[in-house]
Amino acid sequence: MKTMTCQDLGGPCELEHRAATADEIIKAQDKHLREAVKSGDETHAAARDAMKGRWMHPKKSLDWYNGVKRAYADLPAS
Ligand SMILES: [Zn+2]
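# zinc ion complex -> structure
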């Protein structure tokens, strides 16, 4: 398991996600952004839109995904 924060993933807060793979971390962040925006948290709206754009343009977003995967791989396991 490794930990990345909302901020590590382009979001505005320091909520920590723990997961066994980078993909799971990205999914957890996606869920967190959706729930935050749904509950009226405007500070997460820009990150939510960016994440939505990534799902719609996966090829253009490869750099972002690879960056997250690299950052995840470099983290110490805990
Ligand atoms: Zn957050």
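# post-check
Residues 3 and 18 are 4 Å apart (CA to CA).
The beta strands are 2-5, 16-19.
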